[in-house]
Amino acid sequence: MDIVLSILCLFLIGIWVSTITNSRKIGKNERFIGYIQRYDIDGEGYQQEVWEVTDEEDS
Predict the structure, then answer these.
(1) Where would I find the H helices in 1-59?
(2) Dihedral of alpha carbons 17, 18, 24, 26, sign
(3) pLDDT tens for residues 19-43?
(4) pTM for this structure?
(5) Burial class, 2, CB count within 10 angstroms (exposed 0-12 / middle 13-18 / buried 19+)
(6) How far is CA 48 from each of CA 2, 40, 56, rounded to the nearest angstrom?
(7) CA-to-CA distance for 50 and 59, rounded, in angstroms?
(8) Which of these, 40, 47, 53, 54, could form a disulfide with 35 (CB 3.0-4.6 Å)?
(9) 35: which residues sit within 8 A by CB, 6+ positions away?
(10) Integer Cα distance of 56 and 59 in angstroms
């Protein structure tokens, strides 16, 4: 019974990791530039992702 629960836990952890890594797929017209430092209204700092998106027309 312990082996079955261990295998089930490993399987669920694997699914969880794959959903995290595949949550943000880069499209053909997107390019990751980097991070910028931003500040909210309270003065707390946080990092924001910067993406470049180009409009491509279908020919």
Answers:
(1) 2-21
(2) positive
(3) 877 766 666 777 888 888 889 888 8
(4) 0.40
(5) exposed
(6) 43, 11, 25
(7) 28
(8) 47
(9) 47, 48, 49, 50
(10) 9
Tokens representing 40 are 């909210």
Q: CA 28 from chain center: how many Å?
A: 16
| Nearest alpha-carbon partner for 50 in 36, 40, 38, 39 | 36
Give the Å distances, CA to CA, from 56 to 5, 24, 49, 52: 49, 20, 22, 13
Contact 35, 50 (CB under 8 A): yes
Tallying the residues shown for the chain, one arrives at: 59
